[in-house]
Write a structure and sequence with these properties.
- This is HTH tetR-type domain-containing protein.
- By secondary structure, this protein is mainly α.
- It has eight helices and no strands.
- The longest helix is centred in the first third of the chain and has 26 residues.
- The termini are far apart.
- The mean pLDDT is about 90.
Length: about 190
């Protein structure tokens, strides 16, 4: 390996360490400083600023990393296969796994970043809307409301469930169950 490649690999490792430290630390302390993130990453503050000159750029990198991971996880589930209700159940489980993996998603740490709204949910909502459309066409989901609204409501429910856990009003197990039950109930038509 050439010296240049070694330096690039080292720079990428420190960049990834800073990004992961931000994901972990900001989930616990949304207002943590760049110095705190550097300490958590085991690098000098100057190293953080060399990779991410501003907090906004670091937050954008965090969002980009999470969005790429979420997209790869969501791609495992094909919204066009299986019974819509069963497939939705798998989606709900996956959404909960994502929220559990990235507790930063239900903190204020990412608020205010211009990339948050378009990037945070697009990988999920586009595919979820397709699944809901298919479920509505099959008569398994309520067709009286737009599929995009049902998808947004499902995303809203998971944030409510996470907030209840964070506030100590529900255990993670109870919140997951409440989310799953409520989302399925919301999507089903009246019978």
């Amino acid at each position: 390996m050439s010296e240049l490649r070694a330096r690039r690999a080292d720079a990428e490792r420190s960049r990834a360490a800073v990004r992961q430290a931000a994901i972990d630390l900001l989930a616990e302390r949304p207002q943590a400083s760049m110095r705190d993130i550097a300490t958590a990453a085991g690098v000098a503050r100057q190293t953080v600023y060399a990779h991410y000159p501003t907090r906004e750029e670091l937050i954008a990198a965090v969002i980009g990393h999470i969005a790429a991971d979420v997209t790869s996880q969501v791609d495992r589930l094909d919204p066009e296969k299986g019974l819509p209700t069963e497939t939705l159940g798998h989606w709900l489980d996956l959404l909960w796994e994502i929220l559990t993996k990235y507790p930063i998603l239900h903190t204020d740490a990412l608020n205010g970043a211009p990339e948050v709204d378009p990037q945070r949910h697009a990988p999920i909502t586009d595919r979820l809307t397709r699944l809901i459309e298919r479920g509505q066409a099959a008569g398994e989901f309520d067709a009286r409301v737009p599929p995009a609204w049902l998808g947004a409501a499902v995303i809203g429910l998971i944030h409510v469930a996470a907030a209840e856990v964070a506030a100590g009003r529900l255990s993670a197990t109870d919140a997951r169950r409440a989310f799953h039950t409520s989302a399925l109930h919301l999507c089903r038509p009246d019978r």
